[in-house]
Automatic annotation (TrEMBL):
This is Dehydrogenase/reductase SDR family member 1. Transmembrane segments: none annotated. It comes from Durusdinium trenchii. It comes from the Eukaryota.
Length: 486
């Protein structure tokens, strides 16, 4: 009888664990009256529970459906879950130690938790549907700064969708190589020589493009950007953690001129062409994008970088106010950790950078290729419904954002390519995209795992209940900045 009582106390502790995890998964369904709260917070993929549902019923209806996008949950759920789960873990640790009788079969807390989590069906994800490229044949796109990096990946992704893609940059030979890859992928690549720090060159580039498209443009992706790290001296200072006043003033000019300002200038000259396309075929809404990053809400690299990305996000929101009613949609793109040529070069030169980026995780599993952004852009271009919540964040201070990894996950897109394809040749084998860097899929095996006791770390291993891609922390939490140095 005493053994039964101790065992009951052990399993009673799991109520706290389940309560915290249920909050993470079912909070989108709860609130003062059914607890519905339309905030851009933790997401999960699944059916919506009925109002005032019990935890047991919530678990039952929260079974994921791969065709549905992530749902949103309120702050109180994130906070309670964050408090409940660690407290429950401590209680489990204490109770399981007391429940083990001398000579009895080993029944550690890790084994108990494995049993409970193995029986939790709502956390098992169905296999994603097969992915296929969209068909954008007959559409015209411009991708600025497409010589390499994300711009090259976007151009190739649009090429897979059979679009005609004008790629801009300063190196004619490299541009021609990118254009050839676009054509080989199934589209039609056209190189356009242009230095985006020179407004006159930008004007001439769009004049030339207009002649070839009858004055219409369906897609503009503003990607041209001059990284401050492209200067070896500045790169060295940044790697040592230099503050803004220890860096040359040119860092500000580089980031804002070929970045924020060049996005504005390209949008300025492209706007008449985008509007012409909207008038010519009203059911279709042209798409205007700009490449930004999580640096728009949290400190990243340098002060100048973060200001430029935050301003880029604001630029897209304000352009949506002006162009949206006229039939043009504007979206800010947020890739995650992207394995561009520049990032790979910096990792080779400074191996410690890899540790700073991903900790002990496998870079190949947590970083995405530039192509993934291109495939997401192709989806946005082909389907106007993907330019609205939940695929694009709701109006507000963080509105009009498209988080590439999350949209790729919710739409079951793939990264890389099959053997023999251009995508496979350039970006590696076909694979599941990396998790969003604000999701437990990234944070669980990374930062969260190191805080757990050794016997509980399996929970934060890939596939564990504390490593689910569907659970994503609020952007507001990221805005608090990096952890304070001890």
């Amino acid at each position: 009888m005493a053994v039964l009582f101790r065992t009951f106390r052990t399993f009673r502790c799991f109520r706290f664990v389940l309560f915290g995890l249920v909050l993470c998964l079912t909070a989108p369904t709860l609130g003062p009256r059914g607890f519905a709260a339309p905030l851009d917070l933790v997401r999960y993929r699944g059916a919506v529970a009925p109002p005032r549902c019990t935890p047991r019923r919530a678990i039952e209806v929260a079974r994921p459906a791969p065709q549905l996008p992530g749902r949103e949950a309120p702050h109180w759920a994130v906070t309670l879950a964050a408090l409940a789960v660690p407290a429950a873990m401590r209680r489990v640790s204490s109770c399981t130690a007391r429940a083990a009788a001398p000579g009895a079969r080993s029944n550690s807390r890790a084994q108990l938790l494995r049993g409970v989590t193995a029986l939790w069906p709502s956390l098992d994800l169905a296999a994603p549907a097969a992915w296929a490229a969209e068909d954008l044949e007959g559409r015209f796109a411009v991708v600025t700064g497409a010589q390499r990096g994300i711009g090259k990946g976007v151009a190739l992704g649009l090429g897979e969708a059979r679009a005609t893609v004008f790629v801009t940059g300063r190196n004619q030979r490299v541009l021609e190589t990118t254009a050839q890859l676009v054509s080989r992928a199934g589209g039609h690549g056209v190189p356009v020589l242009c230095d985006h720090s020179d407004d006159a060159q930008v004007a001439r580039a769009f004049e030339e493009i207009a002649k070839q498209t009858s004055g219409k443009l369906d897609i503009l992706v503003n990607n041209a950007f001059k990284s401050p790290a492209s200067n070896p001296e500045v790169n060295q200072l940044m790697s040592k953690g230099a503050k803004f006043y220890e860096l040359p003033l040119s860092v500000w000019d580089d980031v804002q001129n070929v970045g924020l300002r060049s996005h504005y200038v390209a949008s300025y000259y492209a706007a008449p062409m985008l509007l012409a396309a909207a008038r010519a075929d009203p059911p279709r809404r042209p798409l205007l994008c700009a490449t930004s990053s999580f640096g728009g809400v949290t400190y990243l690299f340098t002060t100048a970088y973060g200001v430029g990305k935050a301003a880029t996000d604001r630029l897209m929101r304000d352009l949506q106010v002006e162009l949206g009613p006229l039939g043009v949609d504007c979206v800010s793109l947020w890739p995650g950790i992207v394995l561009t040529e520049e990032v790979q070069r910096r990792i080779r030169e400074d191996p410690a950078m890899l540790q700073q980026m991903v900790g002990e995780q496998d870079l190949e599993k947590v970083a995405e290729s530039p192509l993934l952004t291109g495939r997401v852009v192709a989806q946005l271009a082909a389907h106007e419904k993907y330019r609205q919540p939940p695929y694009v964040t709701a109006p507000g201070l963080t509105g009009r954002l498209c988080l590439v990894a999350e949209v790729a996950h919710d739409l079951a897109l793939r990264d890389g390519g099959v053997a023999g394809s251009v995508a496979g040749e350039v970006y590696g084998p076909d694979r599941t995209p990396a998790p969003s860097i604000r999701s437990l899929g990234f944070l669980g095996p990374g930062a969260l795992k190191s805080t757990l006791p050794e016997s509980l770390r399996f929970l934060a291993e890939p596939g564990g209940v504390l490593a689910k891609e569907e659970v994503r922390i609020p952007l507001e939490f990221m805005a608090q900045g990096p952890p304070k140095e001890k």
